[in-house]
Amino acid sequence: MIPFAYQVFSTVIQEGTFQKAALKLNVTPSAISHSITQLENELGFPIFIRSRSGAELTANGRTILPIIQEILNSQARLEQEAADINGLNSGSIRIGAFSSVCINWLPPIIQSFKKQYPNIDISVSQSGFNEIVQNVKNGTLDLGFAVMPVSENLIVDDLVKDEIYCVAPKGFVPKNKKSVTNEDLEDRDFILQSGDYDRDTKAALDYYGIQPNLIHFSIDDQSIVAMVEAGLGLGILPELALQKIIGDVAVYPFEHPFYRSIGLATSAVQAKAPSTQKMIETIKAFVGKKYPEALLVRS
């Protein structure tokens, strides 16, 4: 059996405070504190910095995080294997995804998965590209939707190429009537998410020579559209992000097309878990049905 202190360690990281971890594990805060203190004594160094606002990992705590998480994940995988042998199909899956995948892909994917495996628990965490990959690497997520390339040592399946579009105020029409060119972008301000700037969006901006002083950062896809609608600048968003966005705006492709590649990342350990394997199969089936043509890319 896995030491309870390991479960406490992982839960405190997920919840952010001893109090919330106690509620999650249905124990008292003093039991959480005692378990962490006992673990620190066994290890010989502090693993959390405690404060009124919560608990933060020390440098040594960050070092042991992936090791303890791997132990917990291996135990969960053993339980899933045993459940499969006994015909119970139980288990759990922790998925990380960015907003457009959460909105457009995950509802039908989870719905389809639940019809086949109703006893497998699913949790979804929405965050940025880099955080998702890091959490998959640390073992706090089983699967993560990522934007390629992924530099970490993970198993990654390319899923689809997602074209990037220019979002403009209503009434904007490119000079050639069909696509955005250099002429359309002169002296224009741009609004985008800061997390996108070091990725495929930056490639489009660099190609068209957009200067950093013309770039303004927003919070999310919907707020970008709202600001564009108000005439505050142009936006750059991928097709997936535009599918359920509400706003009275014009959307045009760039004369020189740009794409982001969406992938699915997992670790070598989690890739062996039965529930993870079944979810990967479900995700690939969904993407293959939705994108049957040339945009579908598989490694």
Mind explaining what this structure looks like?
The protein is α/β, with parallel strands linked by helices and 299 residues long. Among the domains are: 1-87, Winged helix-like DNA-binding domain superfamily/Winged helix DNA-binding domain (Arc Repressor Mutant, subunit A, Orthogonal Bundle); 161-259, 3-Layer(aba) Sandwich (D-Maltodextrin-Binding Protein, domain 2). 44% of the residues lie in helices and 23% in strands. The chain is built from 12 helices and 11 strands. The protein has helices spanning 4-15, 18-25, 29-43, 59-85, 99-104, 106-116, 129-138, 182-185, 200-207, 221-229, 239-242, 274-290, and strands spanning 48-51, 54-57, 91-97, 120-126, 143-147, 155-169, 190-193, 215-218, 234-238, 249-253, 259-266. The strands form 2 sheets. Strands 3, 4, 5, 6, 7, 8, 9, 10 and 11 form a 9-stranded mixed β-sheet that branches. Strand 1 (48-51) and strand 2 form a beta hairpin. Helix 1 (4-15) packs across helix 3 (29-43), helix 2 (18-25) packs across helix 3 and helix 6 (106-116) packs across helix 12 (274-290). It is globular. The two termini are 38 Å apart.
